[in-house]
Structure formats: C-alpha cells, structure tokens
Design a protein that fits this description.
Quinone Oxidoreductase, Chain A, domain 1; single chain; alpha/beta; 2 domains; 15 strands; 30% helix; 10 helices; 26% strand; 324 residues
C-alpha cells in the first residue's frame, strides 16, 4: 500500500489526513517513484487553503526525491534504480510513492544527496529563475530580498553573495538576522523593529535598489515599491501575509516608471529545455559550494499537519523536509 496525505477540502492544517491507496502500473510516459525525501514549501499552504485553487480532494506537495521502481512505455533516458527529483510538481509529493510524468523529473547527480535534492530543488530553482531570468542580477548590484532567513531566502543570500551581489535582507527576529548574515546576507533589517524602506534608502545612500524580490505579499508590497530606483523591477512571487491589494497602473509611473511582475516557477520550467537549464544551474551551484542545504526541520510524513502549523506560525527557518 502507498501512504499519502490528502486534503478533502480547503482550510487549515487539520484538513490534511493520512490515507492508504494502491498505485497502478505506470502508463505510457509515466514512472513510479519510491520517495525518500519530500520538500515542504509555503506554496503547499496556498493550495491547502484554496488561495491557489486546485480541485479537491488532492495530495499536496510539488517536490521530492526518490528512486524509480517502475517505468511505463515510451519513457527514454531513465531506468529502474535511477535517483531522481522534481522541482515543480505536478501536485502529489506528500506520498511514500507516486506516479509522475518522466518529462517532469531529472536525475540526481553524484555528490548530491536525496535530502539535499528534496530540500533545495524547488527553492533553488525559484532563486535561479528569479535572479537569472526574471531580473538578471549582475555582479556589483545591490538587491532587496524579503524573508531572507526563509528557505528561499537563505539560498538566495548564499548564491547572490557568491556571484558578487550585495544582499539587503529583511527578517522578523534578531536570531533570523544572524542566520541570514551567516548565509551571506550583507545587510539585515528586522522589520519588527525598523522601517525597512527607510533602512534600504539609508544603506543605498538614497539611491534605492534596482530590484526587490518579495514573497511576503500584502504587508511589504507598498513599502517595497518605495525601495526601488527609477525603472526598477518589483518581483512579487509569494503571499505569506496575504495577497497584494489591487493597484492602479498609474502608480507605477508616479513611483518612477517601475516594472511589476508576478512570476511562478511553473512558467519558468514549462519546457524540458527550461527544466534542464534551471535544475542544471542548481546542481552546479550545489556542487561548487555556492549553495548549501540547511535542513533545520525534519518531520515524518504522517506529521504533515504539524509541519504546516509550524510553517505558517513562522517557527521554521532554513529548509524543511518530510520523510516517508
């Protein structure tokens, strides 16, 4: 039997429940994976609450690592026993084993553990598309990255610092400020004590930054716009404090002919070429030491409810994985 976590309706963490199911043999183009480690991500809570609509019932989770145990017809490039991972779904990762299209998986190279792959792929691929392709950051730039001590934020601090970029990061506690600094963040702002917009302008001598990466959402959006240079880019890619309120397009003109984008990882790995580009950069960064996992929480898959509670209460830092 396969052990899964299922949500039958939208709601709080308690809508998640364990269930035993029987998987079919993989059909054409599909593989079966025995999963060894599963990534926990904030987007999982958006699906569970209905903020990002999905059909119920469903099994949450967009990333995991594991071993191929069966292969369907017409699958090439993979074989039984391969260690593989996937960074962007489809949904269904909260499971001891699963069926998944071969087009969505990549092999884990030697030197990268299953736990590192599960902890780093979605978040690492998020940092890759944000900083290489949404707004291509270059050496010498200064950027503002919100939630710098979170799973994505720590990877961004490491990777950007390794690329010669100055990182200003916001955090919610002094302990998280120290964690962000230890991972390459050059300037930390504790938004519970300081006005982050004022501090950014102070740090940049009134110039502002060319780009803001904001996964916090409602609480930081307007202040983030005021951190930008003329023709700066506002990248809002998450909603930890709720969705951003609508704004008139003219506001972007008033604040300096700003660019505003709301990207998602799925659109940046939608083709096989993009998936291999994105994951290849992440694997290279892991292997050359530019990014390292910092798995600070491990939960049994059966404890997914508690994992979601802790995540939403901001009790977690670094990366979190679920173990089947």
């Amino acid at each position: 039997m396969t052990y899964i976590i299922e949500a039958t309706k939208a709601g709080g963490p308690d809508v998640l429940a364990a269930k035993d199911v029987t998987l079919e043999t993989p059909s054409a183009g599909m593989v079966k994976i025995q999963q060894t480690a599963i990534g926990l991500n904030y987007i999982d809570t958006y699906h569970r609450t209905g903020l990002y609509p999905v059909p119920f019932p469903f099994t949450p989770g967009l990333e995991a690592a594991g071993i191929i145990t069966e292969i369907g017809a017409d699958v090439t490039g993979f074989q039984v026993g391969d260690r593989v991972t996937y960074p962007a779904g489809p949904l269904g990762a909260y499971a001891s084993e699963r069926l998944i299209p071969a087009a969505n998986i990549v092999k884990i190279p030697e030197g990268v553990s299953d736990e590192d792959a599960a902890a780093l792929m979605l978040k690492g691929c998020t940092v890759e598309y944000l900083t290489y392709r949404t707004y291509p950051v270059k050496e010498g730039d200064t950027v503002l990255f919100h939630a710098a001590a979170g799973g994505v934020g720590l990877i961004a601090c490491q990777w950007l610092s390794a690329r010669g970029v100055t990182v200003i990061g916001t955090v919610g506690t002094d302990a998280k400020a120290e964690l962000a600094k230890a991972n390459g963040c050059h300037h930390t702002i504790n938004y519970s004590k300081e006005n982050f917009t004022d501090k950014v302008m102070e740090i940049t001598n009134g110039e502002g930054v060319p780009v803001v990466y904001d996964s916090v959402g409602k609480d930081t959006f307007m202040g983030s716009l005021d951190c930008l240079q003329r023709r700066g880019t506002m990248v809002t890619y998450g909603n930890a404090t709720g969705p951003v309120d609508p704004i008139p397009p003219g506001l972007l003109a008033v604040k300096g002919s700003l660019f505003l984008t709301r990207p998602t990882l799925m659109d940046y790995v939608a083709t096989r070429e993009d998936l291999e580009l994105c994951t290849g950069r992440v694997f290279s960064a892991i292997k050359d030491g530019s990014i390292k996992s910092d798995i600070r929480q491990r939960y049994a898959l059966k404890d997914a409810v508690q994992a979601h509670k802790d995540l939403e209460a901001r009790k977690t830092s670094g990366q979190t994985i679920l173990l089947p």
